[in-house]
Design a protein that fits this description.
Chain lengths: ~220, ~260
Amino acid sequence: MSWITKTFTSSIGRKVIVAITGLFLCTFLVVHLVGNLQLFKDDGGAAFNIYSHFMGTNPVIRTLEWVLLLGFGFHIYESYTLAVRNRAARAVGYVDSRPSENSPWYSRSMALLGTLILIFLLVHMYNFFYRARFGDLDPDINNNDDLYTLVYTSFKQWWYVLLYVAAQAALCYHLIHGFRSGFQTLGLNHRKYTPIIRVIGYVFAIVVCAGFASMPLYFYFFK
Amino acid sequence: MAGNNPNAKPMNLTLKVWRQRNRNSEGKIVEYQVKDISPEMSFLEMLDVLNEDLLHKGDEPVAFDHDCREGICGSCDLFINGRAHGPEKGTTTCQLHMRKFSDGDTITIEPWRANAFPVNRDLSVDRSAFDRIIQAGGYVSVNTGGVPDGNEIPIPKNIADQAFEAATCISCGACVAACKNASAMLFVSAKISQLALLPQGQVERKTRVENMVAQMDKEGFGACTNIGQCAAECPVGISLENIALMNREFINAKATSNNLA
């Protein structure tokens, strides 16, 4: 093995990849959330459809889409590899173990929360991304694909709303631990800044997830 | 077995102890009753009482590791009621006293659990994986000469304190035992920090972190997921700052060392 493969197959090397991709995915969440705020504009979906047309056709966005896919791919693959290795490190478990006395549950459940988010992601991609990119949506008044109507009809189904809100709860806990954990793994721990990063992590997780969850709730109850 | 305190009421306890003959045999939890335990006894003294009872009955005493019984050596590695070194924060098992328990309690006692720490017998595990990690780089090679004068090498007080805090690690393995991933990163990072922070540790700074992390992985410890169970259970309070420092050292070494292997 060369020094490069040795670095990136070592425990810390893999952790660094999870941290970098994780923090990168956080920036994606911000962009996705801000863009989707168009859904709240009361214009029958015209603004949202212009935005989604732009996201589906702009060459810079289309290139970044592949970078995003790689980000997800590495984050999931490396986390999975580490989780398998970590589970294998203790073949015989304890008869009596009380981890709740020394740590929060969501910090210990990152793999489970990640899996729930992945399942949601696949459903979400199939319903909106796949149909917007490869499906046959009707045109709206500006002759853009009418993704807004698809969003509207989807979020009028209660089980869909429930799935989305539950997924955001899982994402919120994943982010509360993941945000500060990413900095720690990259060695960015400092007595001055780590407490601030913790607070920002909480605020980030809650604002982003509440923002996403508000969209299906808005359509279900107020449209 | 009365202690110095006349008000200390003796306790009767039920112990659920992991018994295992050797590395290859199957182990199981065996229940024992101990009577008239003084609240002033240490946890290990309570186990001594159990072992004396077992000897008198002609049974095999329970094997457990202990040495100084002063909280310094890090030998007494017991997982008590689901916690490394028991329920009290910042203590080793030998410094845990029976006054933390109540009459009639049931106490479960298990060995550290990690593939890298195989069970020798009963509650005693083999922690030589830690020794091999230290042998991989947890030292400073110096040409010895005369005794250097005091303050010949200037070290800022705060750096000296930070290195000293890392150096208080007693290698007990509670971090591994408490960690969901059986990760040794708190231990390894403390051993890296104590040398990386000081001028004497600079010569081997990059090879040290590369070799120690490689050995840690080879021993089969898990990888840290920054939960913090290790630091919460550490009897000497080694902090997670050390793990961040180790990560920095590792990234820096991998990016800039001359080691192509």
